[in-house]
Amino acid sequence: MLKKLYPLFVAALCPSFSAFAGEPAANDIGVKPFTASYSIIHKDDPVGTASRQLSYQEDGSARYSYSTDIEWLIFSDTRKESSIVQVKNNKVIPQHYKYDREGTGRDKHYEWQYDFANNSAFDVKEQQAIKADFSQNLQDPLSYHLQNRLNLLAHPEQKHFVYPVIKSSGKIKNYVYQYDGEEELLLPYGLVKAVKFKREVVDKKRITYAWFAPELDYLLVKLFQVKAGVKQFEAQLTDLKVDGKAVTASLPSKEKQPH
User: Is 232 in contact with 238 (CB distance < 8 Å)?
Assistant: First the structure.
């Protein structure tokens, strides 16, 4: 079962960035380079780790990457995903997407290049191009996470988000996220206040919940998935570095609070 769970962790919402190394472009929201680490939990047991990273390139683009390493019984799974993008007027423009998976079962590799100006996407693996309408803020399977954080930063009052995503198959699918309240969470990282969103896939009886901390510029701090009413997996923030420096929770953990 666990080998089916990872893609849904990827489908959660992720951090975003500014357009240029060093400083954001005019009208763009700036987020400093960071590394966020998570613990992946299955049936209340830690089974692996995950990492999200943002870095800036000399050519003005930003690189967002995501990786996981899972070991559970005889099952192993290592995945790496990256997206090179530009940001203009707080809109993420994907340029290059790469995905690699190794471990138990069949290995997988996908790579796409995007031409925003000519509304086309090129499948490097299959060596073929398809038409893609980027005028609708079309995203790749990772970059839409970044667009979501930009949207939360720019419009924290908004309760509903829709993202058209070009899948690795070349098909376009809308990802819909709905506000689902606010909570105070006790995580390995510490105690944080967060806003909660959910994404429901009705035909698969699956709901993914994601929590973002306003005090951390809407960084994803927790992820939880339910399928047909049964808990599948959970991911919790353990450590955070911004600009290479460790960031600690502004709220003390409940264990450390005075009685």
Answer: no
Q: Are 97 and 85 in contact (CB under 8 A)?
A: no
Question: Tell me, what's the pLDDT at 254?
Answer: 52
Determine if residue 74 is left, alpha or beta; phi over 0 gives left, psi from -120 to 50 gives alpha, anything else beta: alpha
Beta bridge partners of 245: 242
Joined tokens for residue 215: 């005090």
Q: How far apart are CA 198 and CA 200, in angstroms?
A: 6
Q: How far apart are the first and last CA of the chain?
A: 42
On whether the CB atoms of residues 159 and 176 are closer than 8 A, the answer is no
Cβ neighbourhood burial of 257 (10 Å; 0-12, 13-18, 19+): exposed
pLDDT in tens, 53-105: 999 899 989 999 999 999 988 889 999 999 999 988 889 999 999 999 999 99
Quickly tell me which residue has 């959910």 as its tokens. Answer: 198
How far is 15 from 39, CA to CA, in rounded Å?
Answer: 17
- Is 174 exposed, middle or buried (CB count within 10 Å of its CB: 0-12, 13-18, 19+)? exposed
Four-residue CA torsion sign, 163, 164, 169, 170: negative
**What are the angstrom distances between the C-alpha of 124 and each of 35, 127, 137?**
28, 5, 22
Nearest 5°: phi and psi at 162? -130, 130
What phi and psi, each to the nearest 5 degrees, are found at residue 202?
A: -60, -45
| pLDDT per residue as tens digits for the range 241-250 | 999 999 998 7
pLDDT band at residue 227 using 50, 70 and 90 as cut-offs: confident
Find, among 113, 193, 97, the residue nearest to 146 by Cα. 97
pLDDT of residue 29: 63
